[in-house]
Amino acid sequence: MLHVSCFMIKELHNKLISKEITSVQLTEEYFARIKEQDKNLNAYLTLTKELALKQARKVDEKIAAGVEIGMIEGIPGAIKDNLCVTGVRTTAASKILDNYIAPFDATVVIKLEEAGAVFLGKTNMDEFAMGSSTEKSAYGSTKNPVDLERVPGGSSGGSAASVASGEAVWALGTDTGGSIRQPASFCGVVGLKPTYGRVSRYGAIAMASSLDQIGPITKTVEDAAIILSVISGEDKMDATSAQSPAKDYTKYLTGEVSGLKIGVVKDYLEKLTGEVKISFEKVVEKYRELGAEIKEIELPNAKYSLPVYYIIMPCEVSSNLARFDGVKFGMRAEDHEDTQLDFLPEDRNLIETYLDSRRYGIGAEPKRRIMLGTYALSSGYYDAYYLRAQKVRTLIKQDFEKAFEAVDLILTPTTPSPAFKFGEKTADPIQMYLEDIFTITANIVGVPAISVPGPTVEVDGKQLPQGFQLMGKWFDEENLLRAAHAYEIATK
Fold first, then answer.
1. How many CB atoms lie within 10 A of CB 175?
2. pLDDT tens digits for 142-190?
3. Considering Cα of 16, then 20, then 23, then 28, what sign does the dihedral take?
4. 328 lies in a domain?
5. What is the widest separation between alpha-carbon atoms in the chain?
6. Catalytic residue annotation
7. Residue 46 domain-assigned?
8. Structurally, how many domains does the chain consist of?
9. Distance (Å, rounded) from C-alpha 257 to C-alpha 112?
């Protein structure tokens, strides 16, 4: 038996074409690993073993017939549970979608299936992607494989934990304010948020439509480039999809950053303390050694990113989650025996049906954001909150445009601290929201960003992962991946 968790996509691809292992054997080995350890991690909500083995057999038949296979063919991965897969339960980790079986595939799922990928299952997440710890799932928390007493980050915590623990070679996540990059940092893996519009959002359960983006979580930058090469490209089913041609992003992984100008944000540097500051300074010094030019830059309006995000995002949440009413999608309150109803089914009207279904089916954090957004959009407050936030969003984007006239990339920590313990921040939502302080700007302005493992930091006598983040110009994933890869191979 191979120790599958040690191998990357290209290595497994070579083992498949050399017939050292079959895709079915590889898939079975991953399911055995999931069975052995996921009872402790809770990274998966639904396993799709029958589908996975069917996909794997197709690849093995092609190899046996001497047909050339693509890089991702036969390689097992996982899908976040807010991305639709035909015939598979898709809950977004919410009770209101407990019985929802997707009738269609997300575009990214279609692209991966056409490329021959194998789907192991659907991963756990914060409910409707609202959270930074995967403690907000209606189906229990996911644990960090590095330290089971700590959170894996969120909202794509299940995807990050599955890759970090060797329960998947790759995984898809969604990122609205850092939900790919922050869990990647906490779990010691790579997380990529592409440029807004680079990857189709069709088939993703929307949280905040102007901020959401789908991207990969992988063990290495090269693996992230391989997955991005498959899932990116224009899609007529998504009106926000950009006219960006598909390309092989692995061709840009030269290992060279000499001549690249990398900006570090002066305000961020001044706020860093302790082990995180030391870790980040080591990353900056490594890029200097590799030949990059480090320049201090200013993003004067970036300090408003958090309040801007927490106005725009809840407003869009309020709109997007209105459809989950127990009538058009998901369950009605009476579908579950343990529901305590405010209104008897035979007595209540349509509004009362909505109230009972949403009261039972939607958790506390989505309710909080729905109420915030509904208030900000209400008559008399729209101009004061939502419209003003959009104007400041434009100012933040202008800061980035000016900064990118001077530098090619912007370097920051991914998170203000390494993974925290369960329950440490749940009592204070503001403390949880501050986990996104370095990541949300990329979503607000739509630029691509990647989190890469940097030097670990010591907490309570343990070495914990700490990621750093690179942000690139709009639709310049090439330089972003090149710089991330150069650091990765230089530090092994």
1. 30
2. 999 999 999 999 999 999 999 999 999 999 999 999 999 999 999 999 9
3. negative
4. no
5. 73
6. 80, 155, 179
7. yes
8. 1
9. 30
